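User: Okay, second chain of the day. Same drill as before: sequence in, structure tokens out.
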Amino acid sequence: MYNTLEFRYKVEKRFSSKLASWLSGKERRTSSCLSRTYEPPKKDELKQVFDKFDINEDGKICRNDLKQHFASFKNGNMGDHVTKMVEAADFDEDGVINFIDFKELHKKGISEQEIRSAFRMYDLDADGKISAKDLQEVLHRLGEKYSNLECVIMIANADCDGDGKVDVEDFMIMMTKTLKMLP
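Assistant: Same drill. Structure tokens below.
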């Protein structure tokens, strides 16, 4: 359950970094499809994501922060899941997720099932693919403003088969570049 935090981070960071790379001409579209080599995120990237979840800016992610953050999703009623997420990520057992907990959480592995679950959060029309429209809507719900063209570019950078959408396999490849897979 705690991996929802990681998924949100990964998708936001991966799409944002892919867009920046593509716009600057430093990365070819197909490079993201070639391997699943693990690339750990930088500490400052994790801090930026942590700060997005820390709604009240007190240096801790509490249940209310998570509830507010996930309220924008189509499955916004996540009460029990939020409690389980905090319990799973609260390594020092103080009832909240601090940045040390958040970093530790990221070091954990992730299963294929959890990645597939995250994929479904972004596949708004449940057609088995994340379109630029799906991505733009999710990012908008998260308070991020991207144009349709920017979302098309982000999708193109994660789209390995060239169909203009990110299917679950494309998503797996993108996600496992910065997430360790559990055996």
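The longest helix spans residues 3-24.

User: Thanks, on to the next one.
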